[in-house]
């Protein structure tokens, strides 16, 4: 599944930001260098961005930039330790609307240690919630996903990973791999979803920050 | 950086050093430093050769400076020749003379009078260029860009006719920005919010959002208004 790309022109039209702002944010490292994808088109070289991630990031910057200076914001985006050390209680998770209440009810109880959620645990909840929310998983499959993420957590600790959810003849299965990975499936397999740790982290950070 | 932690480096006459972290670097005369240099302040006069990269908060140099790696700087001011093999990243850069930067250039303020060549992408808050010769930049993305032609005297016009490198003009493939005020610029595409295409420009395609002014002495292939 190819990630959706958006051209620079479309992006600026859609978000209403200017060239100057875009380049300023890039200079301040609010937008990672490797999100600028150069591609040849019939009008010459053009710049494209990963659509979902870019729109999310721009929304995040626009919503925060009145309270924080760009430098502070850049620091926050690149420095993830402050957010990873955070522990939240059930009430806080509910209050901040981090995952839907269904997800929280079903999976929330299982992995609380001493009544607080760690960043990793929240991350797993977000992953499950995301796929459930898109209607791509059944509840049993969500159980399996949550279990898979938990079991494999020590193995992927501190590493960047990606999660693939595919289906063959109606049977769903998950693959967790170190990112960036290129997986090839046989013809009967339909890749339903592909999520990366970076995306999840960003989502969660946005909600926590 | 802790001010007391690092020593000063001082070269007067002819000298060399290995490189390292310094508080203040002062180079006078002929100097060669082999390794990468980190410093709080840097002043130099004469012919300076740095084999590695340079990271400095504040620098002011005159003469012929060559940097073998990248240059990361807070504020810098340079008169004379500057050659950087890597990229240039910093807050503010004032140039009087010639600069040749091989990599990307990211600055908040860039003011130059003279000749500029940037091999990569120039991204800046505001750029002001007074052309004394040929400026070449691959791509430009800015908030505000003002290009002016300097040296309109008879002598430079004569020299420019004979030696193309001395003809005052800016060449870029793509120029994008919020406010673009151009003169003597040759570009394939110019995109922006407010654009002024002044005398002596040759532009293949202009895309503007709010306002476009074209001087009668400019050539524009195609104009297009974009956005709402």
From TrEMBL, chain A:
Pfam family, one: DUF4004
InterPro entries, per the entry: DUF4004
Protein name: DUF4004 domain-containing protein
Organism ancestry: Bacteria, Bacillati, Bacillota, Bacilli, Bacillales
Protein's organism: Paenibacillus graminis
UniProtKB/TrEMBL annotation, chain B:
Protein name per UniProt: Cytoplasmic protein
Annotated organism of origin: Paenibacillus graminis
């Amino acid at each position: 599944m190819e990630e959706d790309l958006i051209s620079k022109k479309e992006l600026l039209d859609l978000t209403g930001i200017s060239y100057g702002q875009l380049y300023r944010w890039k200079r301040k490292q609010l937008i990672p260098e490797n999100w600028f994808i150069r591609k040849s088109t019939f009008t010459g070289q053009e710049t494209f961005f990963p659509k979902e991630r870019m729109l999310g990031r721009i929304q995040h910057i626009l919503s925060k930039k009145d309270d924080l200076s760009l430098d502070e914001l850049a620091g926050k985006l690149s420095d993830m330790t402050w957010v990873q050390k955070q522990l939240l209680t059930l009430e806080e998770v509910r209050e901040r609307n981090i995952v839907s209440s269904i997800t929280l009810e079903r999976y929330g109880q299982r992995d609380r240690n001493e009544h607080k959620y760690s960043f990793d645990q929240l991350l797993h909840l977000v992953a499950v919630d995301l796929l459930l929310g898109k209607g791509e998983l059944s509840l049993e499959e969500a159980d399996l996903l949550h279990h898979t993420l938990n079991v494999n957590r020590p193995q992927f600790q501190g590493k960047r990973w990606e999660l693939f959810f595919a289906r063959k003849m109606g049977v769903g299965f998950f693959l967790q791999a170190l990112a960036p990975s290129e997986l090839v499936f046989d013809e009967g397999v339909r890749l339903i979803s592909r999520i990366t740790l970076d995306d999840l982290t960003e989502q969660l950070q946005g909600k926590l920050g | 950086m802790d001010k007391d932690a690092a020593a000063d480096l001082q070269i007067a006459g002819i000298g060399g050093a290995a490189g390292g972290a310094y508080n203040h670097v002062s180079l006078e005369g002929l100097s060669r430093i082999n390794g990468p240099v980190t410093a709080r302040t840097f002043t130099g006069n004469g012919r300076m050769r740095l084999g590695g990269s340079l990271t400095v908060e504040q620098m002011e140099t005159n003469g012929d400076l060559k940097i073998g790696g990248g240059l990361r700087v807070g504020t810098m001011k340079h008169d004379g020749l500057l050659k950087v093999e890597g990229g240039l990243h910093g807050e503010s850069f004032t140039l009087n003379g010639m600069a040749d930067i091989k990599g990307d250039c990211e600055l908040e303020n860039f003011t130059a009078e003279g000749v500029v060549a940037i091999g990569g992408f120039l991204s800046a808050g505001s750029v002001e260029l007074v052309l004394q010769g040929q400026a070449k930049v691959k791509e430009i993305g800015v908030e505000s860009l003002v290009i002016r032609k300097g040296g309109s005297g008879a002598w430079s016009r004569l020299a420019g006719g004979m030696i193309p490198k001395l003809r005052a003009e800016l060449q870029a493939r793509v120029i994008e920005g919020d406010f673009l005020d151009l003169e003597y610029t040759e570009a394939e595409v110019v995109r922006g919010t407010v654009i002024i295409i002044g005398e002596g420009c040759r532009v293949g395609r202009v895309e503007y959002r709010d306002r476009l002014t074209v001087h009668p002495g400019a050539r524009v292939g195609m104009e297009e208004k974009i956005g709402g």
